[in-house]
Sequence to fold (143 residues):
Amino acid sequence: MSRGTVQNLKPSDLPMDNVLNWEVDDKSADGEDFEVALPQAGLDGVCNGSPGGIEDPQQQFTSAFTGKGDAKARYRVSQYANADQSLDAIRGLSQTLRDCGLKEQKDGSYSGMPNSNGPRLEVSVRHWGNWVGVVEAQYSPTP
Fold:
């Protein structure tokens, strides 16, 4: 957030933009699949997590993107009541991603093929205070 406004990503900020040519998808951003809260991850239900006592965010902003072929991406920015709740949401998301078969990378992001099949999923998380930003990019293994 900057000066009271949530900053959105540009399509060029998404992983593999040079190959997938991401574009904003205003139609999908209003869809139910894009509005889910953490610890759900991935698009089309590829990584379902169990909330397990994780509080819903006070507010959430979601942006949708489409890319070459069947590529989809989502950027969710969620505000929680306090930093402890935001950290709980991040821990829940991390568990969902590990349970789904994704591997944590050295930079703290996650990537892999959920449950060893289907599309490739790349997830990165940013955290500041009671805010959490999650970028999810899902595409065929050979874009």
Observations:
- The mean pLDDT is 87.
